[in-house]
Amino acid sequence: MPRFILISALNHKRTIGKDGGIPWHLPNDFKHFKETTLNKTIVMGRKTFASLPSQKPLPKRNNVILSTTLFEAPGFVCCKSIDEIIELTKNDDDVYIIGGQNVYEAFLPIASQMVLTYVDNHLIGDVFFPMFEPTQWKRVHSTQYQIDDKHKYAYSIQTFNRI
Ligand SMILES: NC(=O)c1ccc[n+]([C@@H]2O[C@H](COP(=O)([O-])OP(=O)(O)OC[C@H]3O[C@@H](n4cnc5c(N)ncnc54)[C@H](OP(=O)(O)O)[C@@H]3O)[C@@H](O)[C@H]2O)c1
User: pTM to 2 decimals?
Assistant: First the structure.
């Protein structure tokens, strides 16, 4: 089985999204997301797929959609269950779970790492990163980024490994 890694950006309210999108724009966090997931398998829920511009796959990654209702999308592999994804990725090393809420919840029990961008705002959204038990996770890395012309909010990128 590969290492399943949750990668997400959340704020102080655990908000990850609102009205089908992400309620902040942090270009350097997108860059970090791209660099981290490049050449890997990424797994997204059907609604996160729907939020992608023109529903196009993210380049240079094996794009997988988890859905019980969507069976085909050009450039994507569609899976109906977690078990199907485990079978599909059995020879991968790292598989990134890129959201949204439903998919993070589904993979949290079997994830071995989380790469979380903590965004310094209190916006209330309609989808949230799941609560996790802090005693089960060790923070192994944290880098702080400040507000600048292109980044309206400060943020920190933190990596947690399951203990
Ligand atoms: N801040 C971030 O890092 C981040 C990252 C990604 C997404 N987002 C935001 O999150 C929002 C979308 O998240 P969401 O929670 O509403 O939806 P989602 O998790 O992207 O998609 C939900 C759908 O995925 C399928 N699914 C989920 N778990 C499944 C399972 N165990 N087995 C089979 N299918 C499963 C179902 O599709 P069917 O109904 O077809 O069965 C379900 O309706 C958007 O606002 C997006 O912008 C934020």
Answer: 0.98
